[in-house]
Amino acid sequence: AVAGAPDPTAASSVAPRPVAPQGERKPTDVTATPISQVKTVDDEPELIETEGGASPGPQIHVDEPWPNYSKMKAPDVVDRVRGADASTKAVVRLYEQTHKNRKSILTATEG
Asked: Are 64 and 91 spatial neighbours (Cβ–Cβ below 8 Å)?
């Protein structure tokens, strides 16, 4: 006997796993989906056209950074953004880029 090798005459406490014979397959629980509706990793997101002739990109929805943001004047937003933390500035910047694109607010979110 080799050191560390199992004793072939000893009873095993581990039950052997049943093995499916070659060529047989176990049925799987698959719902029928038409091939035309199956998505693959190569599927591209829906693209939309953007303003100003920019190339299309994936469509995303960005909520207002805070209530009544869309009704605020740019100078008021800039004042509020100057004292905001980095995450708030990032949300404001994303909202502006996707909705209004006001230069003064975008500049205020950079610093």
From this structure: no
What's the whole-model pTM score? 0.48
In 3D space, the residue among 56, 47, 81 whose CA is nearest the CA of residue 96 turns out to be 81
Q: Write the CB contacts of 67 (distance below 8 Å, at least 6 apart in sequence).
A: none
Q: Which residues contact 99 (CB under 8 A, 6 or more apart)?
A: 62, 70
- Render the burial of 18-53: b for 16+ CB within 10 Å, e for the rest: eeeeeeeeeeeeeeeeeeeeeeeeeeeeeeeeeeee
Give the model confidence (pLDDT) of 34-90 as tens digits: 656 656 666 566 655 555 555 555 667 888 999 999 999 999 999 999 999 999 999
